[in-house]
Design brief:
Helix content is about 80%, strand content about 0%. It folds into two domains: about 45 residues, no CATH class; about 325 residues, Rhopdopsin 7-helix transmembrane proteins (Up-down Bundle). It is built from 15 helices and no strands. The longest helix has about 40 residues. It is mostly helical.
């Protein structure tokens, strides 16, 4: 009876119908989980490798380059922000958090991603490693978007409502605890993804594989991608309108160092947002598309290639930010050169002391530039302390 039933499943023309037959039959034939999966996987699993070896070699080389550049770039970012006095500001705390998130993604996620590309099934590591990979990927992506959102909200208040920004200084001093909360919230929301994450690829005909998963991926796409980016887009429109209006007005009067600082930080943040959108859109879209594609359709096969492209862009996002900081910000570029030079020549103490004196001189100069009302002097000082980058 079992042989006939298995042969009947094999004789079905449509792959999805055949796999549906195996999915219903295998749990009846075998009690053990391993035997049940082997019964289903052997006829229905796509392959040990989803791509041909030449393509996998090229992708692996790209991943190795991303890993090396990402580790070096983000470590340098962390060192520069922590060591250079000019970058020890509230704004830099957000950049430091993004760099730490990228480092975790690279160290925990990328090596196992390469292994999975070459050997999708069976998974050569313990199950908890696969769960950890899913947990980390979801956590770090959520941390990144929440960090960018908080950074954008702070920029909006600083640019459009400067006096409110000054009044919020006690809250802004708590930026590190706030960023810790973003990590905790992201981890809690990512726990279900870690629980459901599996290394093998079981078609959605397998009983029980859809328990809560469509909701989770839709929840992630909406709450940790679409909604934050929508808020960021609206805030950016308001910031851009204010900055453009102010710059036009200042051309008719005088230059303002605070406005220039706002403009620099806004350019950096807009570059980060654009890079995040480009790198994460395919990642979120591919995960949601999976639940709407017929396994027998050509779009389903196309989705396999989108999976690799989205994965590549997901990890490419980890090397974009350090490159953007150096391309867009002359201050960050200068600070990077100075700190790296100090590390190389081994004269950190005396030189850093000199840098601190330079930083204090700059702050005093900004503080007393506008010799009008005391409130205006304080406002300039507060804003300059938060926007030097």
């Amino acid at each position: 009876m079992s042989t006939i039933s298995l042969e009947e499943c094999e004789s079905l023309d449509a792959p999805s119908s055949s796999c549906q037959c195996y999915a219903n039959l295998c749990p009846l034939l075998y009690n053990g989980t391993a035997e049940r999966e082997a019964c289903f996987m052997q006829p229905c699993f796509i392959s040990k490798r989803a791509l041909e070896e030449p393509a996998l070699i090229q992708i692996t080389i790209l991943y190795v380059l991303i890993f090396i550049i990402g580790i070096v770039g983000n470590l340098i970012t962390c060192i520069v922000i922590r060591r250079h006095p000019l970058l020890q500001t509230h704004s830099s705390s957000y950049l430091l958090n993004l760099a730490m998130s990228d480092l975790v993604t690279l160290c925990v996620g990328l090596p196992f991603e390469v292994v999975m590309n070459w050997n999708q099934y069976p998974w050569p590591f313990p199950d908890f490693v696969c769960n950890l990979k899913g947990l980390v990927a979801e956590t770090t992506s959520s941390v990144s978007i929440l960090t960018i959102l908080l950074f954008c909200i702070e920029r909006y208040i600083a640019v459009n409502h400067p006096f409110v920004f000054v009044k919020l200084k006690p809250i802004r001093r708590q930026v590190c605890p706030i960023l810790v909360v973003t990590w905790l919230v992201s981890i809690v929301c990512a726990i279900p993804f870690g629980y459901y994450h599996r290394a093998d690829y079981i078609l959605k005909s397998w009983p029980g594989t859809e328990d809560g998963q469509p909701f989770l991926f839709h929840f992630s796409a909406i709450v940790f991608f679409l909604l934050p980016l929508s808020v960021i887009f609206i805030l950016y429109m308001l910031i851009a309108f204010h900055v453009i209006t102010r710059r036009k007005r200042l051309r008719l009067t005088r230059a303002d160092s605070t406005e220039e600082a706002h403009f620099r930080v806004t350019i950096i943040l807009s570059s980060i947002v654009c890079a995040f959108f480009v790198c994460y859109l395919p990642y979120q879209a591919q995960r949601v598309m999976f639940f709407y594609l017929d396994p027998d359709s050509s779009l389903s096969q196309l989705n396999q290639y989108i999976y690799f492209i989205s994965g590549l862009l997901f990890y490419l996002a980890t090397i974009v930010n350090p490159i953007l900081y150096n391309l867009v910000s002359s201050r960050f570029r200068k600070a990077s050169k100075e700190v790296l030079l100090l590390i190389c020549i081994g004269r950190r103490e005396g030189s850093l002391s000199s840098l601190r004196k330079t930083n204090n001189t700059m702050k005093c100069a900004v503080k007393y530039t506008i010799a009008s009302k005391h409130s205006q002097r304080c406002l300039v000082k507060h804003l300059s302390d938060s926007t030097i980058i």
